[in-house]
Fold:
Amino acid sequence: MATTISISPFNSAILIARIERLLKSESPDPSVKGLTVKKGEMKAEFKEKEVDLTRNEMRILLSLIKRGLATRDEIVEDLWSEGIYVDDNTLYVNINRLREKLSQIGAGDFIETVRGVGYRI
Structure:
């Protein structure tokens, strides 16, 4: 009897994003405008001051550094790519926590809200 293998459909954009994320995980610590994300240490550094980041805060910051301007959907895809539904409030809370942490090291104005679009550095 022949065995049938079923391959479920996939979203090629999500697959490409995951591959890019894996390839970039080996890259050096990204930096923009003097703000550096120390991926191995889960920290952000600005003007020789550091602050600890959660996994989600680091992913948001990396997404913004990578894109410059990121829509809410792009950030949600980078953070919760497992397909779990996340509402706008969850993203908003994470962005605000990240802004508070960045302000502790003098980089509080780095994340700008672009009304109707998303966020940018």
